[in-house]
Amino acid sequence: MTQGTHLYVPDERNEQVIIDINGEHVPRPDAKISVFDSGFMLGDGVWEGIRLHDGRLAFLDRHLDRLWRGAKAIHMDIGITREEMERRLYAVLDANGMRGDGVHIRLMVTRGIRSTPYQDPRVVITPATIVMIPEWKEPAPETATRMLKLATVHVRRGYPDVQDPMLNSHSKLNCITACIQAARAGADEGLMLDPHGFVATCNSTHFFIVKDGEIWTSSGDYCLDGITRGVVIEIAREAGITVRERNFSLTHVYGADEAFTTGTFAGVAPVGSVDGRLLGESRGPMVERLQGLYLDRLSRDVGERQRP
C-alpha cells in the first residue's frame, strides 16, 4: 500500500486499465503522449480527480465548473463541450466495466502539443490534450479512523500574483517539495503555511481544526478551491455547526480539540498529531459526525444525478 493521506488497496486490474486519450481508448501499457505535449514539457494544464459512487461521478458539476474556470483563467480552450466531456468520462468507465464504487478517475487537460520547447502558447500547434485515467482505487479500510501524522514544512503557499494556489494546475512542484519534506520527516502529509505564517492547507488535502465545538479552516486565500472542502463547510453549517474561515496559527493547531483533512479520495480523515504534538489517539466525535454527514451528502448527490 502507498503511504500518506491517499492510502489505498492495490488492485492488479489497474495494470491493464483502458485509458482515454483525446477520445480514443487504449490499454494502459500503450497509453502515450508526445514529449512536446504542454503538460509534459511545462506543466501547462489543469486537472480534476473525481470519484465514482454508486455508478455516478460524485459532485461532477462542481469538478467541471472548476476545470472550465481554471482553463479560462490560463486562456486555454478545452476544445470540447461539457456534455462531450461527461460522455467521454462515462464511456471510459464503461469500457473498464466500472459501474459501482471504489473507482477514481484523473481527468487532465493540457494546452496541447508545441512545435518547439518554449513556454509561449503561440507555439502550440494542436488542440488541447485530454486524458482520462480511471483506476480501481478503494481507500484502505482504516482510512476513516487511522490518525494521520502531519509535519509543518518550510515550503509556503505563495501569493496569487506569483502562482495562484487556487488554480488546480499541472505545475505541482511546490506541493511535491512539501510532500517530500513531510515524508522525510515521517509524516503522512505536509502542513503548509501562507506567506504571513498562518496555516493555509496541506500539500494534497485541506486542513481543519476543531476548537470548543467550532470548526476552523483557513481563509481560503492561499489554498486550492477544494470541492470536498466546500462540501464539508456546507454540510457542517446546515447541521448547525459554526464554521469559521479565518486566519489561525500553529499555536491554535497545537491546542486544538480535533483536526482533520478533506479530499476527494479519502473524504474526511482524522489527524492525530502535528509536529509531534498529540491532538488525539482516536477519531473524535466531530470528525465522526462529519464523516457521516459527508457520506449522506455524497449519496444524495449521486442519487440526483443522471448518466448521459
Describe the structure.
The chain has 308 residues and is α+β, with helices and mostly antiparallel strands. It is built from 8 helices and 17 strands. It starts with 7 loop residues before the first strand and ends in a 5-residue tail after the last helix. Helix content is 28%, strand content 27%. α6 (227-238) packs across α8 (285-303). It has helices spanning 38-42, 60-73, 82-95, 160-163, 173-184, 227-238, 250-254, 285-303; strands at 8-9, 18-21, 24-27, 45-53, 56-57, 103-110, 129-136, 138-139, 148-152, 189-193, 199-202, 206-211, 214-217, 243-245, 258-263, 267-274, 277-278. Acts on leucine, isoleucine and valine.
Tell me the major beta sheet.
9 strands, mixed
Distance between the termini: 34 Å
- Low confidence ranges: none
> Which structural class matches the secondary elements?
alpha+beta
Radius of gyration: 19 Å
Shape: globular
The share of residues in helices is 25-40%
Order of helices and strands: EEEHEEHHEEEEHHEEEEHEHEEEH
Average residue-wise pLDDT: 95
Topology overview:
Layout: E1 8-9, E2 18-21, E3 24-27, H1 38-42, E4 45-53, E5 56-57, H2 60-73, H3 82-95, E6 103-110, E7 129-136, E8 138-139, E9 148-152, H4 160-163, H5 173-184, E10 189-193, E11 199-202, E12 206-211, E13 214-217, H6 227-238, E14 243-245, H7 250-254, E15 258-263, E16 267-274, E17 277-278, H8 285-303
Parallel strand pairs: 9-10, 9-16, 13-14
Antiparallel strand pairs: 1-8, 2-3, 2-7, 4-5, 4-6, 6-7, 10-11, 12-13, 12-15, 15-16, 16-17
